């Protein structure tokens, strides 16, 4: 894979735009303390934990769905030592420790079927 | 290895963006307000460009918008013959100030107690925001519509620009102190309190004057008609944009053109540096705002520095300090676990 002469600065994500539903200014927004302070109810500590739990569950579900979306698609993997390979994604095991792929394009040829160890993968990307 | 600038496009407006302003640096970061011909000015988080809210209420194109220093209040000037003051935390309209013609410019004093307005009726108006029912003080003298009016010298003086003149007024006596005449239409004016510098653009020129005496300091010529320019807080750089859709970056001391950036699909109407100088925002006829890094490749806001030899081996830590929405909580948690970062192509819009 050729390295371009200049690379563009990577971004974490794009700026969020209007939600198209409301005028914004979320009531529990980042500057809530400037508004009249509502005394904190004792349950708030617990709800924070369950909020985090819910957030983690949502993230996990999103990740699993992303794996489902990948099935059959061409995925590019970035491995250690600057190695990049592409393959068709097949499946993952229960612990997401290995990826089963086919048509793995390696610098030394194409592997019809292969198991990629997830610990060897730094990142992967695909277009849905 | 040279890094190519990745501008961040903030979409949401449906018509040209004609004015933008940053707040000061607040405990919650800094904020950005954009004025748009669609009549719906928007508030955004300054370092990421994330939309926070839209100020709804104007019935015409919004020509000018500003935030007070601590970003608790916003003010807008519109073609519906009103200027409005808003609560920038809740988005609620606080005051509507009726004028006799299109209002083009608004500016808060440092203490947010007074609002200066100017527009097509050629009058400068000073409103006491603690007494909104009282009549404003009026300063007359301009012979054409006022395009920009700014407080200066610790709010003791007022700078105002119409089509061909820039005038300096004393606040206490409400009289004209000095004026500058131009052969070409003045397109923009910016005031830098530290150093009392006034940045004026007209034709292809970007001129710097003393805000106290209006004496010229220096000026640069750009390759195209410039609509707006902004000086970096540390006065190392200046950025300018105009009719050729490009942004130009100059070394302020030498006048050398350092960079030019393409990206907008229409003329650039306004450019402003952020209060910390780390980025600058441009608003265009194409309806978008774009955020540009001052130091390309530095980790800041949504931009992530990647060293050439590293292959994304480091954890991506999004710069999000205030999780309040579910989305942001998710991202904060995600950042603990994620190893991946991705590049976006420069032209992708949100």
UniProtKB/TrEMBL annotation, chain A:
It holds the Pfam family Gemin7. One of its GO terms (cellular component) is Gemini of Cajal bodies. GO terms for biological process: spliceosomal snRNP assembly. PROSITE patterns: SM, SUZ_C. The keyword Signal does not apply. It is found in: Cytoplasm; Nucleus, Gem; Nucleus, Nucleoplasm. Its main location: cytoplasm. Residues 62-128 form the Sm domain. GO terms for molecular function: RNA binding. Residues 42-54 have a biased composition (Basic and acidic residues). Keywords: Acetylation, Cytoplasm, mRNA processing, mRNA splicing, Nucleus. Residues 1-15 have a biased composition (Low complexity). Residues 1-29 form the SUZ-C domain. Residues 1-54 are annotated as: Disordered. Belongs to the gemin-7 family. Part of the core SMN complex that contains SMN1, GEMIN2/SIP1, DDX20/GEMIN3, GEMIN4, GEMIN5, GEMIN6, GEMIN7, GEMIN8 and STRAP/UNRIP. Part of the SMN-Sm complex that contains SMN1, GEMIN2/SIP1, DDX20/GEMIN3, GEMIN4, GEMIN5, GEMIN6, GEMIN7, GEMIN8, STRAP/UNRIP and the Sm proteins SNRPB, SNRPD1, SNRPD2, SNRPD3, SNRPE, SNRPF and SNRPG. Interacts with GEMIN6; the interaction is direct. Interacts with STRAP/UNRIP; the interaction is direct. Interacts with GEMIN8; the interaction is direct. Interacts with SNRPB, SNRPD2, SNRPD3 and SNRPE; the interaction is direct. The SMN complex catalyzes the assembly of small nuclear ribonucleoproteins (snRNPs), the building blocks of the spliceosome, and thereby plays an important role in the splicing of cellular pre-mRNAs. Most spliceosomal snRNPs contain a common set of Sm proteins SNRPB, SNRPD1, SNRPD2, SNRPD3, SNRPE, SNRPF and SNRPG that assemble in a heptameric protein ring on the Sm site of the small nuclear RNA to form the core snRNP (Sm core). This is Gem-associated protein 7. It comes from Monodon monoceros (Narwhal). The gene is GEMIN7.
UniProtKB/TrEMBL annotation, chain B:
It comes from the Eukaryota. GO terms for cellular component: SMN complex. GO terms for biological process: negative regulation of transforming growth factor beta receptor signaling pathway; spliceosomal snRNP assembly. SUPFAM superfamilies: WD40 repeat-like (SSF50978). SMART domains: WD40. WD repeats lie at residues 55-96, 96-137, 139-179, 261-293. The keyword Zinc does not apply. Pfam families: WD40 (PF00400). Keywords: Kinase, mRNA processing, mRNA splicing, Receptor, Repeat, Transferase, WD repeat. Residues 337-350 have a biased composition (Polar residues). Residues 326-350 are annotated as: Disordered. InterPro entries: WD40/YVTN_repeat-like_dom_sf (IPR015943), WD40_PAC1 (IPR020472), WD40_repeat_dom_sf (IPR036322), WD40_rpt (IPR001680). GO terms for molecular function: kinase activity; RNA binding. CDD domains: WD40. Belongs to the WD repeat STRAP family. This is Serine-threonine kinase receptor-associated protein. It comes from Delphinapterus leucas. The lineage of its organism: Eukaryota, Metazoa, Chordata, Craniata, Vertebrata.
């Amino acid at each position: 894979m050729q390295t371009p002469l200049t690379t563009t600065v990577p971004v974490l994500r794009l700026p969020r735009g209007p939600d198209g539903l409301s005028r914004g200014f979320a009531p529990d927004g980042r500057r809530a303390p400037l508004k009249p302070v509502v005394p904190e109810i004792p349950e708030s500590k617990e709800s924070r934990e369950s909020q985090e739990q819910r957030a983690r569950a949502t993230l996990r579900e999103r990740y699993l769905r992303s794996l489902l979306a990948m099935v059959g698609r061409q995925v590019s993997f970035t491995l250690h030592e600057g190695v990049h390979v592409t393959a068709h994604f097949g499946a993952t095991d229960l612990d997401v420790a290995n990826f089963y792929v086919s048509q793995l394009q390696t610098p030394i040829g194409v592997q019809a079927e292969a198991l990629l160890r997830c610990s060897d993968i730094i990142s992967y990307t695909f277009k849905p | 290895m040279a890094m190519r600038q990745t501008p961040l496009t903030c979409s949401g407006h449906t018509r040209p963006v004609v004015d933008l302003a940053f707040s000061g640096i607040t405990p919650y970061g800094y904020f950005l307000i954009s004025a748009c011909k669609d009549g719906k000015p928007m508030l955004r988080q300054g370092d990421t460009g994330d939309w926070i809210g839209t100020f709804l209420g104007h019935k015409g194109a919004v020509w000018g918008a500003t935030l007070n220093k601590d970003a608790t209040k916003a003010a807008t000037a519109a073609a519906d013959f009103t200027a409005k003051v808003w609560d920038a935390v809740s988005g609620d309209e606080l005051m509507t100030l009726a004028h006799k013609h299109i209002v083009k410019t608004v500016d808060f004093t440092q203490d947010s107690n007074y609002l200066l307005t100017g527009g097509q009726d050629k009058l400068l108006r000073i409103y006491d925001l603690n007494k909104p029912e009282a009549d404003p003080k009026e300063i007359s003298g301009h012979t054409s519509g006022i395009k920009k009016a700014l407080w200066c010298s610790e709010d003791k003086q007022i700078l105002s620009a119409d089509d061909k003149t820039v005038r300096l007024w004393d606040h206490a006596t409400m009289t004209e102190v000095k004026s500058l005449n131009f052969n070409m239409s003045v397109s923009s004016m910016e005031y830098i309190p530290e150093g009392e510098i006034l940045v004026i653009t007209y034709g292809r020129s970007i001129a710097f004057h003393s805000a106290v005496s209006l004496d010229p300091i220096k000026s640069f010529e750009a390759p195209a008609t410039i609509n707006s320019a902004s000086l970096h807080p540390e006065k190392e750089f200046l950025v300018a944009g105009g009719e050729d859709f490009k942004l130009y970056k100059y070394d302020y001391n030498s006048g050398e053109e350092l960079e030019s950036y393409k990206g907008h699909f229409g003329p650039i109407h306004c450019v402003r540096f952020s209060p910390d100088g780390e980025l600058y925002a441009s608003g265009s006829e194409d309806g978008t705002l774009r955020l540009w890094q001052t130091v390309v490749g530095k980790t800041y806001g949504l931009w992530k520095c990647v060293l050439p030899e590293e292959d994304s081996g480091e954890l991506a830590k999004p710069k999000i300090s205030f999780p309040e929405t579910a989305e942001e909580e998710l991202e904060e948690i995600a950042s603990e676990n994620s190893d991946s970062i991705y590049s976006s192509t420069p032209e992708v819009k949100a």
